[in-house]
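Here is my example:
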Amino acid sequence: MAAKKSSSPNRGFKVADQIQRDLTELIRDLKDPRIGMVTLQGVEVTPDYAHAKVFFSVLIGDGEASEEALNQAAGFLRNGLFKRLHIHTVPTLHFVYDRTTEKAADMNALIARAVASRSKDDDAA
């Protein structure tokens, strides 16, 4: 008996990309004041499309408050995705505040301090 042919390995990435694009538009229409200026960084979808982790950062506003508000609006957003996506299972959304940009800014500040300290040491020598 022949093995079951799996769907294209890129399909998961395509679905995740489409979810990200559609969610960007749907989130823009939310009226919750706790949601700041949100940027979606990426979406990870499970192989069975049952769950999707949506990673986001916040330019303006509180990240934790935005995460709470987005997770509360997840059902509404999932319903909006259901109307836009043409797949059998629309994943349950789980929003995760991505602190990568904050950590990168902190690292840049540390590097700048180290370089400034080193140049002072070189000038003193």
